[in-house]
Amino acid sequence: MSDVATAARAIRNGELVVYPTETVYGLGADALEPAAVERVFEVKGRSREKPISLAVPDVESSLKYVHATDRERRFMDAFLPGPVTVLCERRDTVPDVLTAGRERVGVRVPDCEIALELCERSETPITATSANLSGRGSVRRVEELDGRVLEAATVLDTGETPGTESTVVDVSSGTIHRRGALADEIERWLAEN
Question: What is the CATH number of the domain that holds 58?
């Protein structure tokens, strides 16, 4: 098992890292480096038409990469860190390849000490996508990783993760795009705020 410093160095060098979160294992790379993001798509076998989210160590950090409305900020303050992906308008520094050319990007602040430390030490937002091959189930244990992912990435193994995927929400339209952890609470918040 690699340590966080080694994994962060790998990300800064344009390499991939498998890292734990409070949901499932993620596949991380420098989210602002198009070649690194392309490698994530390649290893996962993911369609380039499906965007990938980015993870940052805290809500304040996300504001360097997105334009968040007051309502989106209130939502982020209420639910992050946590198993939630918030869609916000991206800034110009966020590459098209990450968002599949869309104007919004998913923001994650994982509620997991190792993931947050990796985000902090990498000194860049990292990709926040599950470490599985596209179309396959999410990975909760390193032993479940496909060989393609294992060969391509540095691995931070901390044992089994809880396993409920994040809820993906567009606060501006009040739309939940994927129900996951905290979905009922998020629906209530959207209805009341």
Answer: 3.90.870.10
> What pLDDT score does 169 carry?
98
Q: Rounded mean pLDDT of 154-163? A: 94
- pLDDT, residue 163, reads 83
Query: What's the chain look like in SS3?
Result: CCCHHHHHHHHHCCCEEEECCCCCCEEECECCCHHHHHHHHHHHCCCCCCCCEEECCCHHHHCCCEECCHHHHHHHHHHCCCCEEEEEEECCCCCHHHHCCCCEEEEECCCCHHHHHHHHHHCCCEEEEECCCCCCCCCCCHHHCCHHHHHHEEECCCCCCCCCCCEEEECCCCEEEECCCCHHHHHHHHHHC
pLDDT tens for 116-133 read 999 999 999 999 999 999
Nearest to 81 by CA among 109, 100, 54, 123: 109
User: Looking at the 3D structure of the chain, how many domains does it have?
Assistant: 1
Q: Is the pLDDT of residue 18 over 90?
A: yes
Domain hosting 32: range is: 4-192
- Whole-model pTM? 0.95
